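Its record is retained below.
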Amino acid sequence: MDDSLQEEEKKLRRLRFIVDFAIEYLRSQKLNHDEAIRVVEGVRKHALKLFPGKEDAFDIIYAPRFKRVLNEKFQRS
């Protein structure tokens, strides 16, 4: 495997870890809606540092997961 592919894999593993960690954090902590949104925005910002110009990919792959977690956490009964 060449170096650029290894670097890409390393960044992808890091992003997956960050996303999974943030989702568990959102599920387990007592946060208000604004705080939770800031967590998601922070993950998105970090993802775009790792993968500049990939906003659409983040919105397609990860945003639905975050939306689902936020809907579960803040659903109104």
The two ends are 51 Å apart (CA to CA). The CA atoms of residues 69 and 75 lie 10 Å apart. The chain has a mean pLDDT of 95. The first helix runs from residue 3 to 28.
